[in-house]
Amino acid sequence: QEVTARVFMPLFECPSQRCKLNKAKGNLILQLRASKFLKFQEVKLQELAEHVPKGHIPRSLTAHLRGELTRKVAPGDVVEMSGVFLPMPYFGFRAMRAGLVADTYLEAMSITHFKKKYEE
């Protein structure tokens, strides 16, 4: 079973056409040993304090890191990220209330380090 959404719910009954024709409800058991996992990390980027006007709150942005980009950044690092700015639609009850409004995130393609830990 391929997971393409943010939420994963394993299958418990056989969804194949063969099972439906035979009217058999085969129970499925999740086998983690046979599963293939991809590296994924969600990070929050925040504007540097020296770039924020006095009396304002720093802007922040969510970024998704995949594959080799995971574990490249840690809290406090000063980095520059480039990537694709994408919408992330709401789901469930929140989607009904939001209408056409969607949240946004950055699908990171490259990371450039400037400092390992941020100090004022």
TrEMBL record:
GO biological process: DNA replication initiation; DNA strand elongation involved in DNA replication; double-strand break repair via break-induced replication
Keyword Transferase belongs to the record: no
GO molecular function, one term: ATP hydrolysis activity
Spans through the membrane: none
Cellular component annotations (GO), alphabetically ordered: MCM complex; nucleus
Domain MCM OB per the UniProt entry, residue ranges: 7-88
Reaction it catalyzes: ATP + H2O = ADP + phosphate + H(+)
Subcellular location: Nucleus
EC class of the enzyme, as a word: hydrolase
Keyword Ligase: no
InterPro entries given in the database record: MCM, MCM7, MCM_OB, NA-bd_OB-fold
Keyword tags: ATP-binding, Cell cycle, DNA replication, DNA-binding, Helicase, Hydrolase, Nucleotide-binding, Nucleus
Function of the protein: Acts as component of the MCM2-7 complex (MCM complex) which is the replicative helicase essential for 'once per cell cycle' DNA replication initiation and elongation in eukaryotic cells. The active ATPase sites in the MCM2-7 ring are formed through the interaction surfaces of two neighboring subunits such that a critical structure of a conserved arginine finger motif is provided in trans relative to the ATP-binding site of the Walker A box of the adjacent subunit. The six ATPase active sites, however, are likely to contribute differentially to the complex helicase activity.
Family that this chain belongs to: Belongs to the MCM family.
Descriptive protein name: DNA replication licensing factor MCM7
Organism whose genome encodes this protein: Aegilops tauschii subsp. strangulata (Goatgrass)
UniProt gene name: MCM7
